[in-house]
Amino acid sequence: MSLKATLKxxxxxxxxxxxxxxxxxxxxxxxxxxxxxxxxxxxxxxxxDQALLKEMAEVASILKSKGExxxxxxxxxxxxxxxxxxxxxxxxxxxxxxIAATNMSSWKGIGTDSRALERVKGGEPSVFETISVPxxxxxxxxxxxxxxxxxxxxxxxxxxxxxxxLETFRKVFVPSIMxxxxxxxxxxxxxxxxxxxxxxxxxxxxxxxxxxxFEKRVQVHAKGDEIEQLAVAFNRMLDRIHDLVKGLRExxxxxxxxxxxxxxxxxxxxxxxxxxxxxxxxxxxxxxDTVEECDNLLHMINTMLEISETEAGIGQASxxxxxxxxxxxxxxxxxxxxxxxxxxxxxxxxxxxVIIRGNIHGLQRIVxxxxxxxxxxxxxxxxxxxxxxxxxxxVEIVVHDTGIGISEEDLPLVFNRLYRCDSSRSQPGFxxxxxxxxxxxxxxxGNITATSQPGRGSTFTVTLAR
Length: 466
Ligand code: ADP
Fold this sequence. Notes:
The protein is α+β, with helices and mostly antiparallel strands. It is about 55% helix and about 15% strand. The protein folds into three domains: about 15-165, PAS domain (Beta-Lactamase, 2-Layer Sandwich); about 225-310; about 320-465, Histidine kinase-like ATPase, C-terminal domain (Heat Shock Protein 90). The strands form three sheets. Strands 2-1-5-4-3 form a five-stranded antiparallel beta sheet, sandwiched between helices. Strands 7-9-10-12-11 form a five-stranded mixed beta sheet, with helices on one face. Strands 6-8 form a two-stranded antiparallel ribbon. Strand 3 (about 125-130) and strand 4 (about 140-145) form a beta hairpin. Helix 5 runs parallel beside helix 6, helix 7 runs parallel beside helix 10 and helix 9 runs antiparallel to helix 10 (about 435-445). The structure holds adenosine-5'-diphosphate. Adenosine-5'-diphosphate binds near residues 420, 421, 435 and 458.
């Protein structure tokens, strides 16, 4: 593997998690093994000490029953039975000088420890020490104790067997730790890779998208873990961005498409002005027409931008405590003269005070657009009613008219940008009012739905979260 690839792996989260797991697991095993080793060593030593104390009690009783003279003979039998290299017995006087001893050929150089002897003389029943045996690899456990008046016993016991046992334990210990290290690394790597596999999916999708595969989404398996939640949030974010980009593209397409007609008209007007020698009045009319077409264009462009901004969430920050009754009341005041002029009965049913958190300008746009449509598409003698229902959350604004209505095919399309039903082409408008109203309602956690019966009237219901 190249140096670059090695460095890359070292930087991965999976590598670091594996390293942590392997280290923690190996160190824990090491500590556990060490504690176990110490306990076993102590148990073995305890066992040896108990055996030595038992030997001492036996020797004391032999000395008591058979006398000092039989010590060498009696103890030599015992030492031969155990092996003269494994155990020795030595009877000492208070000065520490040997009175009698078993075969000491394997225990050359072993003297008496005057301090241990002093402690026994001081009253301690037994004193233990572990010493290295000269000219031998193993160690020995020595016990000193008093046997009768003015007589002391020294017993030595080889720790060779114990050392061999602990040596075997140590030999098992090192390869076991190595196996544990390898296994913990493998298990750690497996667990980390498994846990982070979902992240790879998110990264891969992000990379694919950056290379142009905008439709790609992270696969979700409904496991509900944290990475799955990240994937769901990531997909939701992508959907939202996709919708925004799509909306922007549609706006651009729509603008390009719908601006062609007015621009062609303006161009035609100007060309006609150029070609024909026109009178002063005719020129003024042409200029006025041009201004009107430009105003229309500006209005259209501004409304489209407003829709896009609302859909993108711009303006959320300017929400305040908005008094809905007042917003509707002001809109009604605005339309009353127009309704009267068209001989349309304008009625309303509004509670005293309804307050929601909203953008006042946006809320005005909703009410004005719905009222404008209702009056525009209702013939003389008809009725337009506005009611506000605040019993529930969301609150509801219902605008009902007895106008021309909308056909079943048109009804789902009226909220699309620039959509106008054929039946309403004679009326002024750009087909943007409802799109804007819907965008504002959605930005207020609400919606707009419409029901209609052609020839009998329409009802638009706006919901707005408090
Ligand atoms: P416009 O400026 O054309 O009114 P809108 O987006 O407000 O644009 O409405 C889209 C279309 O929906 C209108 O052109 C009209 O055909 C239809 N429409 C909207 N409101 C009503 C209504 N109250 N009665 C009948 N048709 C309506």
